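Backbone shape codes:
***
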Amino acid sequence: MSKKLSREEKLAYVEQMLLKKKTTGQVAEETGYSESGIYKWLRKYQENPSDFMPGSGNLSEKDKQIKQLEKELREMKEQVKFLKKATAYFIKNPE
């Protein structure tokens, strides 16, 4: 059974593998994770080292930006909805 590893522990294993100090098989044996899981760590690290395994409840920078943009879009939609209602009101009551 695999033990729960922190981001830092996974990063340390990835660095050891990249430096050829450990193989994926050795890391799998030590951690209890499958070799395919270990390969996923390597791939994620190679794709974006700064966002490697952000951790439970934490978002990568890209995901944070997406979430912020989605929030702004919702707010803009609400503003458009309000402005449409206000425009309709003032067209009916041009005083």
